[in-house]
Amino acid sequence: MISFVEWTTLHDTFGCAKVDGPESTKQAGVICQKLQGKIGAGQKVPEYRLRISAEGIEFIDKQTQKLTCKYHIEDISFVSRDKADLLVFSFISSDRKLNIKMCHVFKAHTRNQAFETCTTIAQSFEV
Predict the structure, then answer these.
(1) 102 pLDDT more than 70
(2) Which secondary structure element, helix H or strand E, spans residue 31, and what is its range?
(3) Cβ distance 70 to 53 under 8 Å?
(4) Is the pLDDT higher at 113 or at 37?
(5) First to last CA, the chain
(6) What's the CA gap between 87 and 83, in Å, rounded?
(7) What is this structure's pTM?
(8) 3-class state of residue 28 by DSSP
(9) Exposure on the CB side of residue 30, measured as CA atoms within 13 A
(10) How far apart are CA 65 and CA 69, in angstroms?
């Protein structure tokens, strides 16, 4: 049995993009690459603290410390690290009201942080 505690970590966000259809997990890698390409050298990107728990994931703005959005764990369908850049990871969430899926892309400060974030999200499904 996994002992799960709430986990919080800081990440840059590259943004999010809508994904469609049954191939949404394959689209995540493409979206990671596209969003990374849109960020110019030296360009500031928003930083969020991700609060991960058995209930879901919350985005907390680094500057204001305010909750900007929240996804329940049952609305998250996929989490993965980018194969080309191990600092980058993404997860896919469903918006039931709008009936769409979104791929959220983040860049961790270290490879270990990206790995731990993905692992923690995956473990939250098991609790």
Answers:
(1) yes
(2) helix 24-38
(3) no
(4) 113
(5) 8
(6) 9
(7) 0.76
(8) helix
(9) 9
(10) 12
Q: Which amino acid is at 72?
A: H
pLDDT computed for residue 36 by the predictor? 63
Amino acid at 5: V
The two tokens of residue 93 are 């969430």
As given in the structure block, the two tokens for residue 92 are 């896919």
Angle, alpha carbons 38-43-44 (nearest 5°): 110
Write out the two tokens for 49. Answer: 């603290």
Q: What is the pLDDT of residues 29-77, one digit of tens each?
A: 666 666 666 655 566 777 888 888 888 999 888 889 999 889 999 999 8
Asked if residues 28 and 78 have their Cβ atoms less than 8 Å apart, the reply is yes
Higher pLDDT, 94 or 126: 94
- For residues 71 and 93, the answer to whether their CB atoms sit within 8 Å is yes
Residues present in the chain in total = 127
Mean pLDDT rounded to a whole number for the chain: 77
CB 20 within 8 A of CB 26: no
CA distance 59 to 79: 16
What is the C-alpha to C-alpha distance for residues 64 and 21, in angstroms, rounded to an integer?
Answer: 35
